[in-house]
Design a protein that fits this description.
By secondary structure, this protein is an all-beta fold. The protein is built from no helices and 13 strands. The protein has strands spanning about 5-10, 10-15, 25-30, 30-40, 60-65, 70-75, 85-90, 100, 110-115, 120-125, 140, 155, 160. The chain has a 4-stranded antiparallel sheet, with no helix packed on it. The protein has a 3-stranded antiparallel sheet with strand order 11-12-13, with no helix packed on it. The radius of gyration is 18 Å and the shape is elongated. The two termini are about 30 Å apart. About 55% of the residues are buried.
C-alpha cells in the first residue's frame, strides 16, 4: 500500500512524503502550485572495501496542478548484490541487473502526471550505477553517480577517477552504451539501465547501469556500470 505521510500546518496541506514501497503510488493533490523533489537510489555493491555503488541524483522543480490531476509516484530502489553467479537484481524503476559480486544499478525516482507511463514523467532523478568488485587489491571500481544532464561514468575505487572502460552514464537525450558486449553486458535504454555480466570468476561481475530518463550503460569486465 501507499506509505505517504501528509503534513498539515494550520489546516493547510504543506507536504507529502513518499517512502519506498517497490510499487507505484497514486495520489491526487489539491489544485495549485507544488514543489516536486525526487532522489534517485544508490547502486548496489558488495563492500565499500571493494568499490561502492554510485549515489542517486536529485532533482526539483515547481508545477501547477489542476483539480483531478493524478500523480503516479515511483520511488526508486537500491541495487542488490550477489556472492554467486546468480542474479544481482537492479533496483525498482529501471536499475540494471548484474552477477557475481557485481552490484545491480539503482532505480530512478520519478513522478508521472495523468498517465502511468514513461512518457508522462515530469521529473526524474537518476539512480547510481552498481559497483564492480574483485576480491583483491586490484580491479575495484565504483559505480557512477546518477543525476545532472548526464550521469557519471563508472570509475576507479578510492579517489574517484572516471575510467575509459567504465560504463557511460545516460543523459536526457540518449542512453549509456556498452563498452564490451562480449560477455553479455548490455546498453541502457529509455527508462532503464544496462545489465552487467561477468567473464569468469577471475574477473568479477560488471555493475548494472542506473535508471533515469535514459539509463546508464555498462563497462568492460573489471569495471563498473555508469550512473
Amino acid at each position: 500500500g501507499i506509505t505517504v505521510e501528509r503534513k498539515v500546518v494550520y489546516g493547510i496541506i504543506v507536504e507529502y512524503v513518499f517512502d519506498y514501497t517497490g510499487n507505484v503510488q497514486e495520489v491526487t493533490l489539491p489544485a495549485g502550485k507544488w514543489k516536486l523533489e525526487v532522489w534517485g537510489a544508490e547502486g548496489g555493491y558488495y563492500s565499500s572495501t571493494y568499490g561502492e555503488g554510485g549515489k542517486g541524483g536529485y532533482s526539483s522543480g515547481e508545477i501547477s496542478l489542476t483539480a483531478g490531476d493524478i500523480l503516479y509516484v515511483y520511488v526508486g530502489g537500491a541495487g542488490s548484490w550477489s556472492s554467486s553467479t546468480s542474479l544481482s537484481s537492479g533496483g525498482f524503476n529501471g536499475g540494471g541487473d548484474s552477477k557475481y559480486y557485481g552490484g545491480g544499478g539503482g532505480g530512478a525516482t520519478d513522478i508521472r502526471i495523468g498517465h502511468d507511463s514513461l512518457n508522462a514523467r515530469v521529473i526524474v532523478a537518476g539512480g547510481g550505477g552498481g559497483a564492480q568488485a574483485r576480491m583483491s587489491s586490484s580491479y575495484k571500481a565504483n559505480g557512477g553517480a546518477g543525476g545532472g544532464s548526464t550521469g557519471q561514468t563508472g570509475g576507479y575505487y578510492g579517489t574517484y577517477t572516471a575510467s575509459s572502460n567504465g560504463g557511460p552514464g545516460g543523459s536526457q537525450t540518449s542512453a549509456g552504451g556498452v563498452i564490451n558486449s562480449s560477455y553479455g553486458n548490455t546498453a541502457g535504454g529509455f527508462g532503464f539501465g544496462g545489465n552487467g555480466s561477468y567473464r569468469s570468476t577471475t574477473y568479477y561481475g560488471v555493475g548494472g547501469g542506473g535508471g533515469g530518463w535514459y539509463g546508464g550503460g555498462t563497462g568492460y569486465y573489471r569495471y563498473s556500470g555508469g550512473g
